[in-house]
Amino acid sequence: MPKISAVIPAHDEAATIAGVIEPLLAAPFIDEVIVVNDGSRDDTAARARAMGAKVISIPVSGGKAAAMARGVMAARNDILYFSDADVIGLTSDMVASILEPVTGRDFVMFVGVRGRKTYWANRLLHFTPIIGGQRALRRELWDQVPSTYKKNFQIEIALNFFAKQRGHRMGFKVMPAFGQVIKERKRGLLLGLWQRLSMIVDILIVSWRLYVLLQLQLLWERRSSRVNTASEP
Fold first, then answer.
1. pTM score, whole prediction
2. How is the chain classified by DSSP, letter by letter?
3. In a domain, 216, yes or no
4. What is the pLDDT of residues 14-47, one digit of tens each?
5. Which residues contact 152 (CB under 8 A, 6 or more apart)?
6. Could you list the residue range(s) of the whole structural domain that residue 49 is in?
7. CA distance 63 to 114
8. For the chain, which terminus, N or C, has the lower number of CB atoms within 10 Å?
9. Is residue 30 part of a domain?
10. pLDDT tens digits, 15-24
11. Is the pLDDT of residue 208 over 70?
């Protein structure tokens, strides 16, 4: 079976980082856990090292996508498992259920989505972008995402888009057993709300760029190509 590199971007996540690393180390086929300490001011790095993870420290926070990219650069395997550092209740069985569709080559990317408390919110996943920090994918997909879209929280939407655009199979699974510490609880009400709004703005910006502007550009290029082909003698 292929070996997997787990990458955890983390910014001030000392309270939860150990609970994320432990199930990853226990999961089958994961032979390295890389924590990218993204400008943390607490002891996230020390706790990660104590758990046995490899730690890469970035002095100044560059955002989630930049931390993910740094982790990918250091990873030695072609299958990657990304995890947020603020999830709670994660188990090695959950990790395995996200990895198996990719290691079995049925999918190029598979996402574990946190279950919502209300049924209708989960049903919306069939119509809204799949956003989830727990995802397994092949390095080839990561490499196919242009660097201009590897920014902050835009990366998850970009991975979804280019997976479909390149004809890769991707899937997801709702996992109600694990949760996440909300930003308002971690950072305080005002800073947490600001970070949440920033995330929403990031998602809206990249969705507009990919699903509207880039799609129009590709449509125009295909139309121009057909016209040029038809005009050739």
1. 0.84
2. ---EEEEEEESS-TTTHHHHHHHHHHSTTEEEEEEEEES-SSSHHHHHHHHT-EEEEESS---HHHHHHHHHHH--SSEEEE--TTEES--HHHHHHHHHHHHTTS-SEEEEEEPPSSHHHHHGGGTS----SEEEEEHHHHHHS-GGG-STTHHHHHHHHHHHHTT--EEEEEETT-EE--HHHHH-HHHHHHHHHHHHHHHHHHHHIIIIIIHHHHHHHHHHHHHHHHH--
3. no
4. 999 999 999 999 998 899 999 999 999 999 999 9
5. 63, 64, 65, 198, 199, 202
6. 4-181
7. 22
8. C
9. yes
10. 999 999 999 9
11. yes
Q: Cα(first)–Cα(last) distance of the chain, in Å?
A: 53
Contact 36, 70 (CB under 8 A): yes
For 65-85, the three-class secondary structure string (H helix, E strand, C coil) is: HHHHHHHHHHCCCCEEEECCC
Total number of domains constituting the chain:
1
Give pLDDT, residue 118: 47
How far apart are alpha carbons 165 and 144 in whole angstroms? 10
Q: Give domain status of residue 52, yes or no.
A: yes
51: domain CATH number? 3.90.550.10
